[in-house]
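Hi C.,

You asked whether I'd gotten around to modeling the 204-residue construct. I have! Everything is below, sequence then structure, no commentary in between.
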Amino acid sequence: MTSKNPLWPKLHLYAQKISEQAGSDVTIKLIEVPFLRIESLVAKGELDGDFGREEESYASSKDSIVRVEEKIADLEFVLVSYSNGYQNGRQARNSRVAAQIGSHTHVRICKEWAMNCTYTNQSANRMEMLRTNRVDSILVALMEALEIAKTETKREVYLSDSLHKAPLYIFMAKKHEGLAHRLAKAIRKVKSDGTFSRIFGQEP
């Protein structure tokens, strides 16, 4: 995961709380890694894990990775724009949309709603494209969209209805297979005791 994301502080705290529940010998540290390299690095065991990815991303790497069975969240995906003309996918057909390069979910949404998507690697790049009118909207998770709405004070921000919902999981290199059960238990605890809701302001 990369740190150029408005959700980074909250994700870091979430990872910390999961670590605390998993035990004193477990530390989840989020570091900046180019999005396109994460999958191959985890599959090769050069990166310990991927904190939050859709399952189909690792469909071709099942023999070299392990999925933590408890999902870390269900993410809804929406469009963020400066116009209320993109309230749903139908209105966004053929519009210019900035999306995340390497995300199978983003590719699926772009195809499903027939949007003209440009793929970039960083949240900051997509926001710059929106601000300079190079795209009509950007495709992001609802959590990120709400953070953008809070911080974008110079112009009014509009969010579309939900375009897609997908569960996100932690994927780890095979060498950490023994931790999967402990992390799943820790995630369930952090969600059930209200910690997730306090961090993100919504139910998991």
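If it helps when you're writing up: The longest helix spans residues 8-22.

Thanks,
B.
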